[in-house]
Specification:
The protein is of the alpha/beta class. The chain has one domain: Rossmann fold (3-Layer(aba) Sandwich), CATH 3.40.50. The chain has seven helices and nine strands. The strands form two sheets. A five-stranded parallel sheet has the order 2-7-1-8-9, sandwiched between helices. Strand 5 and strand 6 form a beta hairpin. It is globular and about 45 Å long. Guanosine-5'-monophosphate (5GP) binds at residues 12, 16, 35, 39, 70, 72, 74-75, 79-81, 99-101, 103-104.
């Protein structure tokens, strides 16, 4: 396998991380990258799952050390992709799969031109809003409006990515994702 990198991109709440978890269960050839963030942990999260949670000072030190192959401010917090995890996965002959925002996906594409990107769209902005509220335990997160504004903006650039899929029905959409994964793993 030649340095495969599959990027699930799209607004937060579109379902990227659920697809990613499912793909990791189904394909042992895949390896996830655990990115770093300065945002607060949500209930049910812990360090290393789904992020390494670090403070801003530490994050900025790591950027100085070129620890991140890509980093960006997303919804007012910093997020970054540790480059060593990508190379470690490839060294173990695994394909990398990750979930990232639009800016990050574009940066990774410029650094790793072989990356394959799948843009996941929600069926509508209203449905996305409801999903984000459900994910926050039924309460509107304080940054809900910001997330929705960012989502609308991100969706206008969906056409820039290799594939665009609407997550209206999870299983149906996952079937499409599986086809793309299997092609890039050389399984079909
Ligand atoms: P959340 O805070 O809801 O978990 O994630 C917010 C957004 O940040 C999601 O769209 C997620 O895909 C994206 N994200 C996670 N890690 C990174 C990263 O390292 N870089 C970039 N650019 N975006 C990231």
């Amino acid at each position: 396998m030649k340095n495969v990198i599959i990027i699930l991109v799209g607004p937060s709440g579109a379902g990227k991380s659920s697809f990613l978890d499912r793909a990791l269960e189904d394909y042992p050839q895949l390896r996830d990258v655990i990115t770093c963030t300065t945002r607060q942990m949500r209930p049910g999260e812990k360090d290393g799952d789904p992020y390494f949670f670090i403070n801003k000072k530490r994050f900025l030190e790591l950027t100085q050390q070129d620890y991140f192959v890509e980093w960006a401010e997303v919804h007012g917090h910093l997020y970054g992709v540790p480059e060593n995890q990508i190379h470690e996965a490839w060294r173990q002959n695994k394909a990398v799969i990750m979930d990232i925002d639009v800016q990050g996906a574009r940066t990774l594409k410029s650094k790793f031109p072989q990356s394959l990107s799948i843009f996941i769209l929600p069926p509508s902005i209203e449905e996305l809003r409801q999903r984000v509220i459900r994910r926050s335990g039924g309460q509107s997160p304080t940054d809900l409006d910001l997330r929705m504004q960012n989502a609308e903006r991100e969706m206008t650039s969906a056409y820039r990515f290799n594939h665009q899929l609407v997550n209206k029905d999870f299983e149906r959409c996952y079937k499409e994702i599986k086809k793309i994964i299997e092609e890039s793993l050389g399984l079909v």
